[in-house]
Amino acid sequence: MSGDSLRSFVHALPKVELHVHLVGSASVDTVLALARRHPAAGVPTDRAELERFYAFRDFDHFLRVYWAVQSMLTDRHDIRLLVTGLAAELARQNVRYAEVTVTPYNHLLDGMAGEELLSGLTEGRALAAVEHGVDLAWCFDIPGEKGVRAGRETLLFALRERPEGLVAFGLGGPEVGVGRAMFEPFFTAAREAGLHSVPHAGETTGPATVWAALHDLGAERIGHGTSATADPALLAYLAEHRIPLEVCPTSNVATRQVPSIAAHPVRRMLDHGVVVTLNTDDPPMFGATLEGEYLAVATELGLGRAELAGLAANAVRASFLGEERKTALLREIEAVAAAR
Ligand SMILES: [Zn+2]
To answer: Adenosine deaminase domain spans which residues (predicted)?
Structure first.
């Protein structure tokens, strides 16, 4: 398959994104608009300068960029800008549906009123559907490094406010020194309230963290799960119980969890029958796009178009969409795969 026909094939596949952080999804255009609204934040308001500031260098610089964007989010207008900016980018790549991770605790800690956050999300979500044809759902996640207090506050906020489109409850932030088990009561309560459990695990620590996410947090999907390949019993468990992994190859290279896409264990996961989905994590900050992830595993790991269509179908099945919508998307994927 030539580069052009591969690109058009990947574009034609209707795609679903299951692991993308709202703050980390901010494009240069969005950040430019935010920086011009908040000049005191010190983020460049000149495009060329901003592009230089925004280009990925290393993990420490990524954290600087991430927190600089976070610091400019003060009200519903800022949140709406983020949401509609993400939707425009998803539409450009023929992504039809995304489950977007939002970290309410960080926004509330920064002084944003809960009502502003919720209005921004809800208004942005409506605009995403009407103007871009992209459906969005939310995952509210706990910033793990902020401990059980963040767990409790995130749970209370999620259950009290329950905005339209909230489908999942997550856990992010650093894994080292942040055990999954301490968040068990919050996940239990969230699941009892009908939210799906989708914690990060096995991104920067070993397979034991993935086991803990499964046993302690009732994980229905695993954010990353990269290190699962170090434990054959875990791979077998994930495959048998059809627990999907939200794999983010470019992010894993950027954060140095794997040396290169060519060395990424995604092929091994697939060979063991694990349900793999491809995702972007913090796309512009890592220089990633969802189409780029599909292209990268095709060119670097030799996945053919049937396998790419299989990955797109996995994401549909692993999503929390209704059955009717899943069936329609799966049919579309089949048609694209059959036509080329
Ligand atoms: Zn993530």
So the answer is: 14-335
C-alpha of residue 63 to centroid of ligand 1, in Å: 13
Which residue out of 116, 175, 203, 291 is catalytically annotated?
A: 203
For 77-127, the pLDDT digits (tens) are: 999 999 999 999 999 999 999 999 999 999 999 999 999 999 999 999 999
How far apart are alpha carbons 131 and 142 in whole angstroms?
A: 30
* C-beta separation of 339 from 305 below 8 A: no
Give residue 257 CA to ligand 1 midpoint distance, Å. 13
H-helix segments, 38-113 = 47-54, 59-71, 76-92, 104-109
Summarised one tens digit per residue, pLDDT across range 32-69 is 999 999 999 999 999 999 999 999 888 889 999 999 99
pTM: 0.97
Q: Is the dihedral of CA 164, 144, 252, 297 positive or negative?
A: negative
- Give the 3-state secondary structure of residue 272: coil
Q: How far apart are CA 100 and CA 70, in angstroms?
A: 16
Domains and CATH numbers, the chain: 3-339 (3.20.20.140)
Task: Say how many Å lie between the CA of residue 52 and the centre of ligand 1.
Answer: 24
For residue 281, report the distance from its CA to the centre of ligand 1, in Å: 5
pLDDT digits (tens, 9 = 90+) for 258-296: 999 999 999 999 999 999 999 999 999 999 999 999 999
Asked whether the beta carbons of 244 and 197 are under 8 A apart, the reply is no
